Each structure stands twice: as structure tokens, then as C-alpha cells.
Amino acid sequence: MEKAVIYREKEEFKEIHLVLKNASSKQFYEYRFDMENFPNIRIKNIANLKGTGLTFENNKISGIPYVNSVHDLDIEFYHIYDENRMEIKKTHLFVNADPKDLWKNIPSDTNDIYYKPDEISYKGKFSDKKITIVSKRGRSHAHEGKFRDDDFAVDELPGGWSIVSVADGAGSAVMAREGSRLATVSINSFLNSEEILTRIEKNIEIVYRTSESSKEIQSEARGNIIRTLYEGILNVYNILDKTTTENSFSIKDLHTTLIFALLKKFDFGYVILTFGVGDCPINLISPDFSEVKLLNRMDVGEFGGGTRFITMKEIFGDDMASRFGITCVDDFSYLVLMTDGIYDPKFMTENRLEDINSWKTFFNDLAGNNDDRTKVDFVSDAYIDQQLLAWTDFWSRGNHDDRTLAIIY
């Protein structure tokens, strides 16, 4: 090839206005050079990438940049008919700041009488399945050094029963962190009774095992189960109310939502008893991931976006029974409970909670298909609680509430 042609092709590559897409610090970045218009040009190396967290290989820049900056890059290239002569083309790579870094993370006051850790994780047994659950203070609270208002409690109960409860303290309630803690601990404690669980179980036997039972008898048995669970919820309210009296609080100061799932495996299937007040969902996903059910009533929409709390006496009205659920399935792949810190950014609307494709997207996200490449491994699960805790640190613009997520699998 004539030297003039080689020179012209190299100069054309030097002069082309090459704009690399912007990167974001601490997020995976990839940019592939399109050389279609320069078939005789080869990029050998890109200088100045050392220390950035990025590498160049096979015509591609990739990696996770460490900090926000403007990097001046030297593209070292040659012409295939003049391999011994290396040329330099200059360009820039802009790495934007990680939005997370703009938020402060001020520890909460460890000396406070109602102190609770800013984040907590748990993994363990749940009936014949496993459970992992995490609760993390939201960025809005961390930025001001406030407490985590979410809470949870998990217990193995007599007779093979297991319970997980989750609560989301109201941001406007000054003692919400204690309200959510008391709510979860109180319902678990109430149901940690052999007498109460035996009473529930006898009625379950009538509903699901005694084939000769009439519909009226089965309906009465279901009513008995709900009445027993109702006693537990009323007990939670009374404990919260007593706490306000003893400490000169208003009941509004302890405002909190509450959901729970009480589960036992029988020879005819898993029985799952649920309750919900507020905007936190409980979802059951079928073994083949073909169907998803919302197991509790959600307090959204009907109240114009406002939620209800266990501390509101009016929830104990005529429609209280609709807050309880009795479900029996042969098996399931996942049982999931979450607060709105997870629900809002990942599902956005209530109807998506019963859309199986939305749940497939959610579990793909958990599997590492996210900007942070954070993966939760449900197979090799030795560190699953820490993985899930790391995952809950995801960025979602405008969604900075406390995040609590329980997954039974």
C-alpha cells in the first residue's frame, strides 16, 4: 500500500471526533470501539488506564472505575501495513460520581435508650426450608444520623411451626423504631405457645384433612383460626398502647405497619397463615415459577396512597377478617416479605406484585443482573445473608427508605 494512503488513513483516525460514553464510579463500565470505518487500523493499547479500575482488551474498555474524574487517555494504534510505527490518538473518559457518595452515613446514637443497629441480617432454618432476612437503614435516615425504623423477628415455634414478622415504622412517628420492634416481637411471642398453636392446628385439621366435614364446619374452623390470630394482633395493639402509657408517649408516636407469615408443613401440604396492615406485601411463588400470589391485603390506593398502622384502633373494625389469610400449597419456591423500601423501587405499583414477569425480573436482579453486579446465591448460600445485605444497598433515585427483605426458599 502506498505510504500516502497509509498516512491518510492514520490521520483520519486521529482526527475523528471520538466520544466515549460516560462511566459512573463504582458501577460496571464497558465500551467497545467501533472500527468498522477503519478496517486497517488496530488499537494496541490505551495508556493511562492504570489505577482507574479499567482495563483494555479485545478492542474494549471495561471494569469498575474507582472514583469520579476526567481521564486523559492515549490510544496507541498502528496501521496493519506499518505495524512497527505506533501512533497516539488522544481522547477523554468522564467518570461521574456515584450518587451514593453524595449521601452522608452518620451512625445513629448508640447511647439512646431505644437504639437499634443501623443494619442487621439473619439466616437460618424455617420449617424444612431456609430463610434469609435483612434490614438496612435507608439513606435518608443515614444522611441525618437517624435510626432504622424497620424491624423483623424470626422464630421456630413448638410443633414444627415457624414465624417471620416484618414491620415498617412510620417516618413521621418519633418512636417508630420501637413501635416496629415491639410489634414484631409481640406477635411472635404471642404465637410461641403450644396451647395456641394446638388450637390453630385442630382447626386446620378440620379444614384440610377431614373430608367428611361440611362446608359450614370448615367455615367455622377457618373462623376459629382467624379469631385466634386476631387475639394475637389485639395483644400487639394492647402492648403498644401500654407502652405509651408507661412512657408518656402518644400512640401515634409508635405508628408502625405489621405483616407476618406463620407456617407449618403437614403431610397434605404447607399451611401458611398471614396477616397484614399497611403497605408491605407477602408473596408466594410456585415451584416452577409460573404463578405468584399476594397473600395479604395491601393498604394502598383505597386511602389515596396513605397506609394504615397497627396502632390505629379503627383497623379493628368489621373488615378486620379480610386482613388474615389461610393458604395451603403442596410446595413453593419462595415466600417473600418486604417493606416499601424494597417494594417501591423494584415493583412500583401493587398490580406488579401479582405479575410473574415482574418477579422473574426481581430474581434476575438478585442473581446479579444489576448495575452493582451484586449477587445473592441461593444454592451456595453460606454467606447469603451478607450477600442480601449488600444487594439492598442498590441505588434507586428518589427511593431512600429503610429496606427490609425476608426470603424463605
From TrEMBL:
<dbReference type="InterPro" id="IPR036457">
    <property type="entry name" value="PPM-type-like_dom_sf"/>
</dbReference>
<dbReference type="Pfam" id="PF13672">
    <property type="entry name" value="PP2C_2"/>
</dbReference>
<protein>
    <submittedName>
        <fullName>Serine/threonine protein phosphatase PrpC</fullName>
    </submittedName>
</protein>
<dbReference type="InterPro" id="IPR001932">
    <property type="entry name" value="PPM-type_phosphatase-like_dom"/>
</dbReference>
<feature type="domain" description="PPM-type phosphatase">
    <location>
        <begin position="137"/>
        <end position="374"/>
    </location>
</feature>
